[in-house]
Task: structure prediction
Amino acid sequence: MPNPKCAICDKTVYPLEDVKAADTHFHKWCFKCTECKITLNLKNFKAVGGKIYCHTHTPVDRASTSADSVSVSKAVNAPKAKAEALGQVQKGTGEKPTQGFY
Result:
């Protein structure tokens, strides 16, 4: 059986330099994070979508809310909160105060 090819450099991977991860073969020196290029090993890598990542740069699926969802439309159409006592604010006349301060 012929030796496999490295998934990164496409060169032959010999048994002493072989790192098999995520059902593909890599050279030890080619087994690096896709983002930061830090050298990885079998204990600290994460494989996502056929690419390898370090713990820091592993992509995370986050739930997103679409603009058409019921909760978003309810929030947008909710009645606005009115400021209490906004109509009762006392405004100054622009004159100097007559009590206490001169």
User: Anything to note?
Assistant: The chain has a mean pLDDT of 82.
